[in-house]
Structures are given as structure tokens and as C-alpha cells.
TrEMBL record:
Membrane-crossing segments per the record: none
A Pfam family the protein falls into: GDP_Man_Dehyd
MF (Gene Ontology): dTDP-glucose 4,6-dehydratase activity
Domain NAD(P)-binding: 4-305
Ranges for region Disordered: 129-148
Top-level taxon of origin: Bacteria
Official protein name in the record: dTDP-glucose 4,6-dehydratase
EC number per UniProt: 4.2.1.46
Protein family membership: Belongs to the NAD(P)-dependent epimerase/dehydratase family. dTDP-glucose dehydratase subfamily.
InterPro entries attached to this UniProt entry: dTDP_Gluc_deHydtase, NAD(P)-bd_dom, NAD(P)-bd_dom_sf
Species assigned in the record: Candidatus Uhrbacteria bacterium RIFCSPLOWO2_02_FULL_49_11
Length: 336
């Protein structure tokens, strides 16, 4: 099978490429990635030289680049991981989110239609359903996004569904809960807090949002879910990908502090995220009935992740550079 993967230099895309090339010796992958601040060729360095793997630097919103790449590679499937993904950055500067997550998704859909690609999988998020104090979102729940990030993802997802209803384009949508694990850019809570603690810095916990809940899945279990959907999912369908492992931000923070032998004085309460969603939670029975289930326990996966960051200091230290520091300072200054 030939698989065209967008955003494969990011966190989840790079894990997925390594996963499917490892599992299927006969598969070929084209990684199409713009290499934004979050895209990093170090994440796929070990795949260079593998004859089954190729990389093209390109923007999913660039019609010509997308069509040329799909026409030449002739994929059996396109999996769209590419996106602007960080909620805080979307609050700060929404424009790139709209271009990539909406126009980029539309551009890929057009190419899929024109070149009759047999499968398109949209990697999306539980955030499109909005926040809920209790209960779980099913695939039938309506969209109620809060941030410019989730609104952009919802826009892209609606377009994906429209291509199924209007053109019978062979699409599948997925909505996942929060991922964590190796190669996550150190701006999300788990990767930021682990690396800050290792650097001897404080961890910025959003005050007022410290009891907010997230459902967490280890990225390898997400890879296995997408692999399962790629092979057994049905066109036109939507699948939630959830682990059932929910934890409040404050409890997650304390768990990380324990794993890294740091005290609670490391916690620094900072201004809350505007429009901060309290809780996301997914009913993922539909995918479980199709035959997938997560393998990792949250405790084991979190400990594994901490060990990975400890062993890959050079990788994340390079990313926490001057631009990174400038962005963080500016973000908190603006919120004061
Ligand atoms: P990431 O920010 O680590 O990586 C995104 C990748 O997309 C980067 O390599 C970047 O260079 C690339 N990219 C961005 N704009 C592009 C463009 N215009 N053209 C081509 N490439 C572009 O993201 P991630 O955390 O790996 O998330 C991957 C996908 O999964 C996203 O669609 C995200 O919305 C979705 N998702 C993420 C999570 C999570 O917890 N991280 C949970 C659910 C869904
Ligand atoms: O739910 C899936 C989504 O998970 C994905 O679609 C997004 O791409 C991904 O970024 C993630 O969004 P969140 O906003 O849930 O993740 P983040 O790690 O940014 O924040 C998790 C929680 O931690 C949230 O309640 C805000 C809080 N937080 C986050 C950061 C970065 C802090 O308290 N301090 C921080 O510095």
C-alpha cells in the first residue's frame, strides 16, 4: 500500500510513519510537511535512507504542490495529520490555523477527488465537540468548538463530511483525545512540564483551570487506532479515539513531579487560558467494536514518556531556543 501522510514531521505523524513502516515491510510512505516551527526532520531522521520512505517539503494549502505530489506518488490512501495544533498559539494568532486546518484540508480533498484516491483519513480532535462537565461525546454529538484552533479543525471536518455527502469522496473522520509520548513538541502540558522540570524551571499551571480534565492516550495506541481504521474503517464514517483515562491538570502535574522527584514548589500558577475548556471525554465504543483497544496503561505510558525525554535531552533542548522563549514571554505578558 502507498500512503501519503501530511504532517509526518510533527509529533503524531512521525510516530505513525515509523509505526506502519515497521509493521508492514511492503508499504511505501510519502511524508508531505511544511516544516513549521512544530515540524522537525529530526523526528524522522532514522527513516532517511529507507527506500520505502520519501519526504517532500510542502504546504497542504498549496494547490499545485499537493496535486503534483499526489499525481506523481499515486497513493492508495491520504492521511491528513498536518495542522496548526496548539490552542494557546491559536488564541494569540488564529490566521495560520484557518489557512492550514480549513483551506489545507479542502485542498487535499480536491486532490483526492481529482486523482481518485481510494481512502482519505482526517485526523481530528475531541475539541470540536466542545467542553462538557459530565458524560461523553459520541460520534453523533454536535460540534461546539471554543478556540480558534478547535473552530478551524471543525471547519476542516465539516468540509470532509461535505465531500462524502456531496461527491461520495471516500473519507473517514477521526476524533481523538489528548495524545502524549515521544517527539511531542515541548509546548503541550506533558512535554512542556517534563522538560521544564528537567531544566530546573517552574511549570506554568493555568490558575482557575488546574482542576480542568483531559482524557489522555499514548501516541502508540493512537497509531494502532489509525492503522486499524486505515484497514477496517468504512468510508463516510466517523470514529472517536479515546482511552478512558481522565485526569485533572493538577493531578497530572503532581504525578509528573513525583516521577521526576521534584517538589510542589515547582508549580507556578499563571493566568488562565481565555475560553479554557473544562473537560473533554469520548465514547469510543464504535472503534472498540471494530476491534481496536488501547494497550498501554496511563501510568506505564507516562513513566515511559518521562524516560524518553530524559534520554533525548539534545532533541528538546534544541527546540527550546530563543524563539521559543520569546513566544512564551510574549504570551504571558499579553495575558497579564
Ligand atoms: P504537531 O503540531 O506536532 O505537528 C503538526 C505537523 O504539521 C508539523 O510537522 C507541521 O510542520 C505540519 N504542518 C503544519 N502546517 C502545515 C501545512 N500547511 N502543510 C503541511 N504541513 C503542515 O501536531 P500533532 O500533535 O502531531 O497533531 C497531529 C494531528 O492530530 C493534528 O491534525 C491535530 O489537530 C490532531 N490531534 C492532535 C492531538 C494531540 O493531542 N496532539 C489530539 C487529537 C488530534
Ligand atoms: O484534546 C485534543 C487536543 O489536545 C488536540 O486537538 C490539540 O492539538 C492538543 O494541543 C491538545 O489541546 P489541549 O489544549 O487539551 O492541550 P494542552 O497540552 O495545551 O493543555 C492541556 C491542559 O493543560 C489544558 O487544560 C490547559 C493546561 N495547561 C496547558 C499548558 C500548555 C496548563 O495549565 N499550562 C500550560 O502551560
Amino acid at each position: 500500500m502507498k500512503v501519503f501522510i501530511t504532517g509526518g514531521a510533527g509529533f503524531m505523524g512521525s510516530n505513525f510513519i515509523r509505526f506502519i513502516l515497521g509493521k508492514y515491510p511492503g508499504y511505501e510512505v510519502l511524508n508531505f510537511d511544511k516544516l513549521t516551527y512544530a515540524g522537525n526532520l529530526e523526528n524522522v531522521r532514522d527513516l532517511e535512507g529507507d527506500a520505502r520512505y520519501q519526504f517532500i517539503k510542502g504546504d497542504i494549502a498549496d494547490e499545485k504542490a499537493v496535486k503534483d505530489a499526489i499525481e506523481t506518488f499515486k497513493p492508495d490512501a491520504v492521511i491528513n495529520y498536518a495542522a496548526e495544533t496548539h490552542v494557546d498559539r491559536s488564541i494569540h494568532a488564529p490566521r495560520d490555523f484557518i489557512f492550514t486546518d480549513v483551506i489545507g484540508t479542502y485542498t487535499l480533498l480536491e486532490a483526492v477527488r481529482e486523482f481518485n484516491v481510494a481512502r482519505f483519513i482526517q485526523i481530528s480532535t475531541d475539541e470540536v465537540y466542545g467542553s462538557t462537565p459530565q458524560g461523553k461525546f459520541s460520534e453523533e454529538s454536535s460540534f461546539n468548538p471554543s478556540s480558534p484552533y478547535s473552530a478551524s479543525k471543525a471547519g476542516g471536518d465539516h468540509m470532509v463530511m461535505a465531500y462524502w455527502k456531496t461527491y461520495k469522496a471516500p473519507i473517514i473522520r477521526t476524533h481523538s483525545c489528548n495524545n502524549f509520548g515521544p517527539f511531542q513538541y515541548p509546548e503541550k502540558i506533558i512535554s512542556l512540564f517534563i522538560t521544564n522540570i528537567l531544566e530546573g524551571k517552574k511549570v506554568p499551571l493555568y490558575q482557575g483551570g488546574e482542576k480542568n480534565m483531559r482524557e489522555w492516550i499514548y501516541v502508540e495506541d493512537h497509531c494502532r487506532a489509525i492503522d486499524h481504521i486505515l484497514h477496517y474503517g468504512e468510508s463516510g464514517e466517523v470514529y472517536n479515539i479515546g482511552s478512558g483515562d481522565e485526569i485533572a491538570n493538577i493531578d497530572l502535574t503532581k504525578r509528573l513531579l513525583r516521577l521526576l522527584h521534584a517538589g510542589e514548589e515547582v508549580i507556578e500558577y499563571v493566568t488562565d487560558r481565555p475560553g479554557h475548556d473544562f473537560r473533554y471525554a469520548l465514547d469510543s465504543n464504535k472503534l472498540r467494536e471494530l476491534g481496536w483497544a488501547p494497550k498501554w496503561s496511563f501510568e506505564e505510558a507516562l513513566a515511559e514518556t518521562v524516560e524518553w525525554y530524559k534520554a533525548h535531552e539534545a532533541w528538546w533542548k534544541k527546540l527550546k531556543n530563543k524563539d521559543f522563549e520569546k513566544y512564551y514571554t510574549q504570551q504571558y505578558e499579553e495575558r497579564k
